[in-house]
């Protein structure tokens, strides 16, 4: 799972990294953290944006990341100034910067969302061949309709 953190306050950035690393995750977590917003668009699974850096650019990047990879976007600010823009920017959660407990809870929820949208179930047949769950269901539906 690849995580992007764009937060200008290094102490707050470290706290988010600490919370992410404490998550119970069955795969490797790669964290990239910056004190500015990136202009290049890589593929991320979860992203944190400090709206105090540049809210308009953060919302644009968040929308693009969502389109690329269904990225789970967190937007953070000191107050609710940008809450209306958040709804149009493919946001998962709008957080006030002092909400550590909520961040931890929402990280767990974001990880579940990530698993639901990115992970595929593979079924192993008796002959040791494999098949995706979606293919299995499609074949099952075709058989039952005949």
Poorly predicted residue ranges:
none
Strand content: 15-25%
Radius of gyration: 18 Å
Return the average pLDDT rounded to an integer. Answer: 82
Structural class: alpha/beta
Estimate the helix proportion, in percent: 40-55%
Number of helices: 5
How many E strands? Answer: 7
Order of helices and strands: EHEEHEHEHEEH
Q: Characterize the biggest β-sheet.
A: 5 strands, parallel
Side-by-side strand order of the widest sheet: 2-1-3-4-5
Distance between the termini: 41 Å
Note the overall shape: elongated
Describe the protein.
- The chain is α/β, with parallel strands linked by helices and 146 residues long.
- 47% of the residues lie in helices and 23% in strands.
- Strands 2-1-3-4-5 form a 5-stranded parallel beta sheet, with helices on both faces. A two-stranded antiparallel ribbon has the order 6-7.
- Strand 3, helix 2 (51-69) and strand 4 (72-77) form a beta-alpha-beta unit.
- The longest helix is centred in the middle third of the chain and has 19 residues, at 51-69.
- It starts with a strand and ends with a helix.
- The model has no long low-confidence stretch (mean pLDDT 82).
Comma- or semicolon-separated keywords:
five-stranded parallel sheet; 5 helices
Secondary structure blueprint with pairings:
Layout: E1 2-6, H1 10-21, E2 30-34, E3 46-50, H2 51-69, E4 72-77, H3 83-88, E5 91-96, H4 100-118, E6 122-124, E7 130-132, H5 133-145
Parallel strand pairs: 1-2, 1-3, 3-4, 4-5
Antiparallel strand pairs: 6-7
